[in-house]
């Protein structure tokens, strides 16, 4: 539904306002949707953290970014726990109408379009790890970070020189093969 792209679209609109107003450096964060414009005032890249879905206050990855969107989807922030302990997350599988059952904890898309990144992060989360990787290999045009239930952080090769694993996270960091 519209909720799968609304914050990405809003991010695109804020970027347009920034640029129309002559803003050359800045950031916006809309709850899992981050846009960085230019570089920090000291000339260095913005450091953007990708949340660790298994550690409420931790980060799984830190990336230096300029003029880019980093948009993350996952079922770890909005969910309902039933009295029997079953967790129902907010992202629904359009094939079943039920909450997604995935081997992914989160999907982060990095690119130059907020609406596209928001749509892809949600859709690829629904597809699961294998489906997300196949989609990226076929369509490309964006960078991706997948955090799996098996304890891996999978990332596209374009991020190899940028990705900084978080020390002590417990994740295995693996580049996705093209």
Strand-residue proportion: 25-35%
Tell me about the largest β-sheet: 7 strands, mixed
Termini separation comes to 30 Å
State the helicity in percent bands: 10-25%
Question: Rg, please?
Answer: 16 Å
For the secondary structure, the number of strands is 12
Number of helices: 2
Task: Describe the 3D structure.
The mean pLDDT is 93. It is globular and about 55 Å long. The protein has helices spanning 6-20, 114-139, and strands at 26-29, 33-37, 46-51, 59-65, 68-74, 79-81, 87-89, 104-111, 143-148, 152-155, 164-165, 172-175. It has a seven-stranded mixed β-sheet with strand order 1-2-5-8-9-10-12, with helices on one face. A three-stranded antiparallel β-sheet has the order 3-4-11, with no helix packed on it. The protein starts with 5 loop residues before the first helix and ends with a strand. A hairpin with a 3-residue loop joins β1 and β2 (33-37). With 178 residues, the chain is α+β, with helices and mostly antiparallel strands. α1 (6-20) packs across α2. The longest helix has 26 residues, at 114-139. It has two helices and twelve strands; from the N terminus they run αββββββββαββββ.
What attributes does this structure have?
seven-stranded mixed β-sheet, globular, alpha+beta, 33% strand, 178 residues
SSE layout and pairings?
Layout: H1 6-20, E1 26-29, E2 33-37, E3 46-51, E4 59-65, E5 68-74, E6 79-81, E7 87-89, E8 104-111, H2 114-139, E9 143-148, E10 152-155, E11 164-165, E12 172-175
Parallel strand pairs: 10-12
Antiparallel strand pairs: 1-2, 2-5, 3-4, 4-11, 5-8, 6-7, 8-9, 9-10
